[in-house]
Hints:
alpha/beta
Amino acid sequence: MAAAPVQEVIENVLKLHKIKRKCNVIELFLAKEGLTEVPDLSRFKQLQYLWLNHNKIKTISSLKMNWCLKELYLQYNMLLDLTGSLKHLTSLQILLLHNNRLTKVEMIVAELKKMTWLHTLNIFNNPLTQDKDYRLYVIYHLPSVKLLDRQYVYQKEREAALDFCNQDRMRVRQSLAFGQRIQTHLLKQKVLKRGGSAHPSWMSAVPRGKGILKKTKKIMVNVSSSSSERDISKIDVVQRVKQKSMMEHSIFDWSKVPNAQQKRQGDELTVTSQIITQFR
């Protein structure tokens, strides 16, 4: 019974715009019509712009033949689920879903993941936005989106989304420290906080200087086994702080390498590589 009024609304819209051929319909305005479901629009093969906002729509199941849609306005409805309803609309560029009842951001991302042309997306004022990190999740999984919830997506936010969703990458970035040494002032502060001196007794056993640390003498620790292990670990830290890194470079004299003519004549040249060790 509800389908007849909907079809009448569509026919009235066509008459209002004096459209006689249904294949010529590019845009269709069905907002504020009290719709509870999306009408069958499969006859409009070239439909590109569709307004269904400000209705009472709960599910979408009648857009499977409208592949040409570029803009879809579904805000201010009662949508609960999108699974299987929009995945085929790969040409979609603008999608407004705000002010609905959507609860799972993963569901939306899975439905929109193939929309490589999608640049504008609104999902605010849905229950799913109660999660403070929903925006980072959407930015990471939908990289084509440039305007999310009426706010531009900047590069810094994309990097934050990459770190948030790719935990392995974030751990690697936090652990790598090329060309950086351990901050000894932090170690010094810890000692002072415990009430000790700036140079505790266990540090005196570590030789100082700019060269590579030589073998240190054995340290007699007359404390419990647990404290002994802690002192040894501290000594290892100080050794790593003071120790310089060693780099080896090999130098090869290509002028001594026999060319093709010398090889045919049987000339033998001594070719050796030179190794240079550098401390930094």
